[in-house]
Amino acid sequence: MSIIDSLPYPLSAAEVRSLTESERIVEAHHEVIAQRSGTEVVPAILLTTEERSFAIVEDREEGRYEVLDSGDRDDRDDVYASLREWATEQGYGGP
Fold first, then answer.
1. Torsion of CA 90, 34, 95, 60, to 10 degrees
2. Predicted local distance difference test score (pLDDT) of residue 47
3. Which has fewest Cβ within 10 Å: 66, 74, 84, 85?
């Protein structure tokens, strides 16, 4: 099972921050936070491991997270740009 497949859905901001307690995850940044029915939900996450960067977004219909984009750790800026574009398209606004 991959790191992404093992993520519970939905995650709160605190849960996203706690992902860095894993030896495999170097950085976990919640890009946006949404409130749904009084519950905090993180729909977009930038996740960085020792070797890779991942833009992870929610699939609300399936009730899970999926990889939007990924690349080597050096590609982090490009992966982040994909995540920002997705967030803007979903109506979460720009920076």
1. -30
2. 96
3. 74
Q: Residues for the chain: how many in total? A: 95
pTM: 0.90
19 Cβ partners below 8 Å, 6+ apart? 25, 28, 47
- Residue type at position 7: L
Mapping DSSP to helix (H, G, I), strand (E, B) and coil, where does residue 1 land? Answer: coil
pLDDT at 85 over 60: yes
